[in-house]
Every structure is written in C-alpha cells, then in structure tokens.
Specification:
The complex is a heterodimer of chains A (330) and B (420).
Chain A: H1 3-15, H2 17-35, H3 43-60, H4 65-87, H5 92-111, H6 116-119, E1 125-126, H7 130-134, E2 142-144, E3 148-150, H8 152-176, H9 179-189, H10 191-196, H11 201-227, E4 229-230, H12 237-250, H13 257-282, H14 292-313
Antiparallel strand pairs in A: 1-4, 2-3
Helix pairs in contact in A: 1-13, 2-8, 2-11, 2-12, 2-13, 3-4, 3-5, 3-11, 4-11, 8-11, 9-11, 12-13, 12-14, 13-14
Chain B: H1 2-14, E1 27-31, E2 33-34, E3 37-38, E4 43-48, E5 51-57, E6 63-66, E7 71-77, E8 86-88, E9 95-100, E10 105-107, E11 112-114, H2 128-160, H3 167-185, H4 189-217, H5 222-244, E12 260-262, E13 265-267, H6 269-291, H7 293-303, H8 305-310, H9 315-341, H10 347-362, H11 367-383, H12 393-407
Parallel strand pairs in B: 1-10
Antiparallel strand pairs in B: 1-6, 2-3, 4-5, 4-7, 7-9, 8-11, 12-13
Helix pairs in contact in B: 2-6, 2-7, 2-9, 2-10, 2-11, 3-4, 3-5, 3-9, 3-10, 4-9, 6-7, 6-9, 7-9, 10-11, 10-12, 11-12
Classes of the chains: A mainly alpha (330), B alpha+beta (420).
Chain lengths: 330, 420
C-alpha cells in the first residue's frame, strides 16, 4: 500500500487550490448566510460567471487578462442584482429555490450547444491563463517528500490564492465589526425590528448579496486559473452544497470558519478517497463490495451524512455560536 | 502529479456522477447512437503526428473511452466497422482534430443516422403547427409526472414547513424499485408499479417515523431541516449510484413501444395508460383532500398547525400520513418518468427543480396550486422548444418561475400572507 502517495495528496489538499477555491466560495456564502441570513443556494453561479467572464473575455474575444478579471467581477455584481431584486423581498425558502434555479439556468446556458461558439459548450474553454502564469516569479517548484511535490505553477497558484483568502477574511472582519456589519447581523436576527429603526433592509440585503457574490467570484477566478480551463459542469449545485457543508463545518458567522472548514473538509475527502482506492488496489476491500468506480460515490455519501449530522447535532460547527446561526425561517 | 491528481479528482466532483467514472484522468470519450439506439462494435482510432496511439471499440451501450495523455490528436472513426444501415451524418466526415487537456475527458461527437435501403426518406421540415399538438401532449404528460411529485412537496411544505430537497430521491426510489421488481425479479410491469408505489409509501412513512419526526421532536429549525434534506438527498442519490451504477436503463416491458396515431398526435399507448392512471390518482387524492375528514384535517394543519392541534387534530399523525401519501405519489411519478425516458440514479434530482418551479408557481403549500403549476411548467417547457433549442427547454421553465415571482410572488393560487 502506497502510504507516501496517500500522505502526499492529503497534505497537498490542505494547502491546495481546491481548498482555496472552496474557502473563497464559503467566505462569500458566510456573508450571505452566516451574517445576513440569506439562503443563497446559487453560489456556484457566482463562481461560474466570474470564471466564464474571464475565460470568454480572453479566449473568445481576445481581450487582455485584466479586462477579463474586470468582466468577471462585473458579472458577479450584475448577477447579484438580477438575483436579488426579484427575490430579496420574499421569504427565505423562496430565495433558496430561485437562486438554485438561476444557478442551473446559468450552467445550462454555459453548456448549451447553441452558445458554444462563445462558451465552448460542454468542453468549456482553455488557454486564457497564459498571462497569469507569465507573472509567475518562481522559477522552480518545491519537493519535500513525502509531504509535498509541486511545480512552480502550483506554487504560484497557491501564493495568489492564499493572499486572496487572507484579503477576503480581512475584508469580512473589518466590515462585520463596522456599523454596516452590525445592521446585517440585525437583519439576520429580526428583519422587522431593523426596518422599524428606519433602515432600508432591502438595500442592505442587496449590498450583502453583492459583497458575498464578489468574494465568491474570486474563488471562480482561482478555479479557472488553477485548472487553466473552465468546464460548465464543475459549476453545478454540488459546488454550492459542498460550500454550505464547509461553512457549517467551520462555523457560520465566524471570520475564519469557512477557511478552517475548507481545509478540514478537503483533507478528509481527499484522504478517504485516496485511502479507499489504495485499499481496493491492494485487495483489502474486495471488488465484490466496492470497485474503484463506486469509491467515487462514497465521498458524496460521506459529505451528505456529515452535513446532516452537523446540522442535527452541532449546527454551529467548530467555531460558531449556536445563537448566531440562522436556522429558522418561519 | 499534484495537479493531475487533484484535477482528475476535481473533475470527478463537478460533473456529478458520470464523472466518477472518468477517474483515470485525461482521455477521449464519446457515445455512438443512431436514432435512439446505441451503436456497438464501431472501431475508433486515435493518432498523434501520424503515429497511432490507440484504438477502441464502442461497447454495447454505444459508449467508448480511450485514455490518452494530454496533447493534440486526430481521431478517426472506422466507417467500415459501422453496421450496414448506419452511416455518418453531416459533412464533417470521420476525422476529428482536437486537443486533450490536462485533467479533462474530451468528448468526441459523431452524428450517426440510418442510411441505405431501410432508411426512411428525408422528411420535409415539420411546420410549427404540425409540432404543436405533439408538444402540448408531451407537456401535459410531463406535467402529470411533475404533478405527482409536486403534490407531495406541496403538502409536506404546507403541513410541516419543510422545503424537501430529498423529494427527488423519493421519485428515483420509486423508479428504481419498479426496475428491481420488473427487470431483476421479472414481475410484469403493472405489478412492479403497484409494488413500487407501496414501497414508496413505506419509504416515506419510514423517513418520517424514524427521521423527520425525530427532528421535529428535537425542534430542529426549518432552515436547518432544509439543509438536512439536502444532505439526505445527496446520501440517497449516491447510494443509488453505488448500487445501480450510472447507466440509464429501460424496463423490461414496453421499452420501445410503437406509437399510435390519434388525430394529429403520435402517442405510445403506455403513455396514454399512465396518463389515465395519473389523472385518476390525482383526482382521488384531491377529492380525499376536499371531502374526507382526514383531508379536512390535512388542510387544517396546512393552514395553521397550532390551531389545528388545539382543535384536537393529531398533527404528527397527519404529517406522517402526508409523508406516506407523498412517498407513494412520488414513486408513481418515478415509474411514469422511467417508462418515458429510462431509469437512472439521478432522474429524480433532475426533475426536482422543475417540481419546485411547479410548486412555487402554483403557490407554496397549496395542493391545487401544485397541480396547476405542474401543468404550466410541463407545457411551457415543451412548447418553448418551438423557439428555443431543446437543450435549453428547462431554462424556459426556470425563467418563467423567476418572472412569475417578480409579478405575483405568492404564485398563481397562493395567498398573499404566506410569503411574509
């Protein structure tokens, strides 16, 4: 059994680009769900719009890299407005259904054959990240066996990614201790009370939706750049559900909750996955019980069980405060 | 190593389950079919700079995969291995030049169709008016399938306030149960259907008896329960995948039934019979809701649970009954859907958003709104294919949902105060 490989992939998942992407997505969700109490089930759309904004600008329309980033950010803001204006006046579960529907619409549009001239259809787009990797200051990777073995490209992605995560945390921390942030938390606790104090609840919610969407869109950029490709089906509902699991695992309404959640989540997923596949390979698990294909579905089952257990037994996650978790809508 | 492994891993994540199969990483893949029939035994060769790198033969389901490292390839379909009456369609020919990227399976498309003596002559493009009646019928059929699912979602929402994201899995459960009874055990389909509906009702009862009822007793918040249902849906869906694998399969009976012409319509009789069953069941349930004591109690709980409890209605019992009925209706919906488009592990999940759209359109928590909403969603998705590409038909339903919420947020039959 190849323990070195298991240790290496598990350790790399702790600092890896996947943890970064999901941490950013969950930080955005934290602003929505954790602080403001908005049940946004369409976070994948914010990542997708940002990633495709970048990829389409560069690959399809031949615009410079930084314009692509601008288009992606603008896309996230526009999406937040489009989602928010019709739905933020409605009750929480309506928002959930509409956001998940909108995210599916966007994914279906990305993968549709009729738009494939611009979006690349179900194959997605590639070759938009050259400018990003051209900025890479590292000339070589690092190799500390058995922990880590990365080339200079990975290293550059991780550097940029963790800087973005740190910045996002800083922004959330600063904003949530400001008067603006206190209004958001008050909206989560009692919308009517806030309204009676003369605050425009709707406007605050829209602002929160935009902020969380833009933070999530940073995850979309990292997703696209670290893979050097965008692919429509990676921006499906599962991304959102994983981000929720991460947020609740780490603790909603806590600045570092999403980051800790993402690291632990991906460590567990990658470790269990690699372990199962190795166990099958050496014959410790007979293929009559499970073959490598089936091992792929085990992780989803575990995520589902984990999500249920967290919500039932410890809705505040690792760091959260039970009083601060929005769990009731009616 | 790192990028390749994580890349492959990641890919496996997003592309929901079919992806779990592409775990080997990069490569070429495709599925060959002519009409709706898979084409097996066709040889496909891949070359790189003129050097052959591999060849593969399509399987019984028409699918083929070829693992190759990233790079540029020429993929050639060997036309001599095609069955006699099948040929390549379109002007693209048998050769494709494409590039495989790191961590991704590249799809290679070969449009195939019937040729030669057995092939029907090319028809003139049907006009809008010719297509309309068939689309409307299909829309009604799908609307009935949706309605069976939506009634359960709506009643569960009405009585306990839960937006049940795991309802799609109740639909899949019914379809898969019928598949086991029909194809594995070998019972006739009508008996399999009855047994699947009973099993679905039992599954719903069990869920409430041992899970949702327990959560209610623990006073878990509604948003909490909603997220729990997402977790439950994920668990069930991937247990189905684990057990039944990712292919779409057909029931043993009536799989490819020829259609009969009724006026301008071309309908397979099995669909007509299922329509009749669905309408009968929906009418019976609606009648029971309106006329029987239990139905009245259900509507009372749905309107105001505390008041209903105060007037001597056993709210818990009513909710358990709703779960049982909801499970049975969802199972029937699943079998109908399975007869219409085949059985796979995520059929219910793919319907779930349309069911939600139907329920929301009609007004959350109103039983008759759910029926009306389902018909609207079913017909809108189908008829919209006159103007939008078929692959985007669900987009029109979901877009209709968002637009209606803008104009009339409480839905068609909803009451104003429900939206708070």
């Amino acid at each position: 059994m190849d323990w070195n490989l298991i240790i290496q992939v598990s350790f790399e998942s702790i600092i890896g680009s996947t943890a970064i992407i999901y941490a950013l997505a969950a930080i955005g969700l934290n602003v929505h769900f954790g602080y403001t109490g908005l049940l946004n089930f369409g976070q994948s759309a914010f990542l997708g719009v940002a990633a495709y904004g970048l990829a389409m600008s560069v690959t399809t329309f031949g615009l410079p890299f930084w314009v692509g980033i601008g288009v992606g950010l603008l896309g996230a803001v526009v999406l937040a407005l489009l989602l928010g204006v019709p739905t933020l006046r409605l009750r929480a579960d309506y928002l959930a259904i509409v956001t998940i529907a909108a995210a599916e619409i966007i994914r279906l549009l990305f993968r549709s054959v009729s738009l494939s001239e611009w979006t690349g259809g179900s194959d997605g787009l590639q070759r938009f990240s050259d400018d990003f990797y051209a900025m890479n200051p590292y000339s070589q990777g690092i190799k500390i066996l058995p922990l880590i073995d990365m080339d200079s490209r990975d290293l550059w992605v991780l550097t940029v990614g963790w800087i973005l995560v740190a910045l996002a945390c800083l922004i959330v921390w600063l904003l949530m201790r400001s008067p603006w942030g206190r209004v958001l938390k008050a909206i989560r606790e009692d919308e009517d009370a806030v309204r009676s104090l003369g605050k425009n609840v709707f406007s605050y919610k829209i602002q929160a939706l935009i902020l969380g969407g833009v933070l999530g869109s940073l995850g979309g950029f990292m997703f696209a750049l670290s893979r050097a490709a965008v692919q429509p089906d990676t921006y499906g509902t599962e991304l959102t559900f994983f981000a929720y699991t991460i947020l609740i695992l780490g603790g909603a309404a806590r600045v570092f909750g999403p980051v800790v959640g993402a690291v632990i989540f991906w460590f567990l997923i990658v470790f269990i996955d690699a372990l199962l596949i190795e166990l099958i390979k050496v014959g410790a698990i007979p293929t009559a019980i499970m073959d490598p294909n089936q091992a792929g579905s085990v992780r989803y089952i575990l995520v589902g069980v984990g999500l249920m257990c967290l919500l039932i037994f410890r809705p505040q996650g690792i760091f959260g405060d039970k009083k601060e978790v929005m769990l009731d809508a009616r | 190593m790192f990028t390749a492994l994580l890349g492959a891993l990641f890919f496996a994540l997003g592309v929901n389950a079919t992806s779990a199969y592409a775990a080997e990483g990069e490569g070429l893949q495709g599925a060959l079919s002519s009409g709706n029939q898979p084409v097996a035994g066709v040889k496909i060769n891949a070359t790189q700079n003129g050097q052959p790198v591999g060849s593969v033969v399509s399987g019984a389901d028409g699918k083929w995969t070829l693992s190759v490292p990233p790079g540029k390839y020429e993929v050639v379909l060997d036309e001599s291995t095609l069955p006699e009456n099948v040929g390549l369609q379109g002007a693209a020919g048998p050769t494709r030049s494409l590039e495989v990227f790191e961590g991704a399976m590249r799809n290679v498309l070969y449009p195939l169709g019937p040729v030669g003596a057995g092939a029907p002559p090319p028809e003139s493009e049907p006009t809008m008016l010719d297509r309309l009646p068939n689309l409307v019928y299909t829309g009604v059929h799908i609307g009935l399938i949706l309605a069976l699912g939506a009634l359960g979602v709506s009643l569960i929402f009405g009585t306990m306030g839960l937006t049940n994201f795991a309802h799609g899995e109740l639909i899949t459960f019914g379809a898969l149960a019928a598949f086991v009874f029909n194809s594995t055990i070998g019972l006739p389909l009508w008996l399999a259907l009855v047994l699947a509906v009973v099993a679905g009702g039992g599954f719903g009862w069990l869920q409430d008896r041992f899970f949702w009822g327990w959560l209610r007793k623990r006073r878990t918040g509604l948003v909490g329960m909603m997220i729990v249902s997402i977790g439950l849906a994920m668990v069930l869906r991937y247990v189905f995948l684990f057990q039944f694998r990712g292919d779409t399969r057909q029931y043993a009976d009536y799989a490819a039934q020829a259609g009969v012409e009724i006026g301008p319509l071309l309908i397979a009789p099995k669909n007509l019979i299922m329509d009749a069953v669905a309408i009968l069941v929906l009418v019976a349930v609606s009648f029971a809701l309106l006329k029987t004591r239990l139905g009245k109690a259900t509507r009372a709980v749905s309107t105001n649970p505390s008041l209903a409890a105060a007037s001597g209605i056993d709210v818990d019992k009513i909710i358990r009954l709703i779960w049982t009925i909801g499970g049975a209706l969802a199972a029937l919906s699943g079998v109908m859907l399975g007869m219409f488009q085949g059985v796979n592990f995520q059929m219910g999940f793919q319907m779930l958003l349309l069911v939600f759209a139907a329920v929301t359109l009609g007004g959350l928590g109103t039983a008759f709104g759910a029926l009306l909403g389902s018909m609207v969603v079913g017909v809108v998705t189908q008829v919209s294919t006159l103007w939008v590409p078929t692959e985007l038909k669900n987009v029109s339903a979901l877009a209709a949902l968002i637009i209606i919420l803008l104009i009339r947020p409480q839905g068609i039959l909803g009451r104003r105060e429900r939206i708070g």
